[in-house]
Amino acid sequence: MELRHLKYFLAVAEELNFTKAAEKLFISQPPLSRQIIELENEIQAKLFIRNNKKVELTEAGKYFEKEIRELFQNLERISVKTKKIAENVSGEFRIAYISSIYSAVISDLIKHLKTEFPYVNFKLFEVSTTKQIDALEQGKIDLGIIRSPVKSPKIKSQLWFQDGFSVVYNKSIIQINSEKEIPDLKDETFVFFNKDYAPHYHEVLLELCAFYGFTPKVVHESNNINSIVQLVKNGLGISIVPSNIAKNNHDPEIGFIELKKVNLFTDVSLITSKEDESEITKLAVEFLLNKK
């Protein structure tokens, strides 16, 4: 049984006239009749009642018509979905980000992409910068959002925005009224990112403290910015975090002092494979660049 047999059958079932059905199919009547006979022989069921006056569907023919119409509808749906998936490069798009930049913008990005590419399964992963670079080189993610320079011949990097730094503290434990008081924090306990997890970021934090004249007493470390802020809230120390965190944190117990005097910034970049020219990647990057 071939698709043409089914198409011919539906044409006759719709017209209930072999001559009109043949004209509709742009073939002559004898070949059409032979195709219908072949179909009936194959499924071993009479589909039409034929006489000199009219053509009618048998009960078996009526059932067959209903099922075949549904079959063609499903084929159309499958074809459309397959085309969409092909246009979207794959059925899955994987985005990695570092914990210190997650905000409503990432959620907005997923919503936007889902609207444009409804057949793609979007996945979000919180991954360190170094691991993101490795994952992108190995094709395990499609888009990365990182802090730090990228030195890889396989990766294309675009600056998303530059972020400053802010001291974060628990208001009920310590009072910091202005940036002038930062040097007085030399005896305080600090919570920092783990050096092995984010080496570049760790070095920047040490540089910041050196600018204000002291070496931080780092007692606690974490690999997650939200955990660092929570440790500060729980009274285990103070920390220095990207200013972007201050913009997205509205906890009344937490205070932030932006470090404006020091000329140190961290680059937040969007990274993709140099070989990736897909529409979905272009749209994702374009959306984020417009949301700086």
TrEMBL record:
UniProt-listed Gene3D superfamilies: Periplasmic binding protein-like II, Winged helix-like DNA-binding domain superfamily/Winged helix DNA-binding domain
InterPro entries: LysR_HTH_N, LysR_subst-bd, WH-like_DNA-bd_sf, WH_DNA-bd_sf
Cited PROSITE patterns: HTH_LYSR
Superkingdom classification of source: Bacteria
Single GO MF descriptor: DNA binding
Domain (HTH lysR-type) ranges: 1-58
GO CC annotations on file: protein-DNA complex
Similarity annotation: Belongs to the LysR transcriptional regulatory family.
Protein name per UniProt: HTH-type transcriptional regulator BenM
Organism encoding this protein: Flavobacterium bizetiae
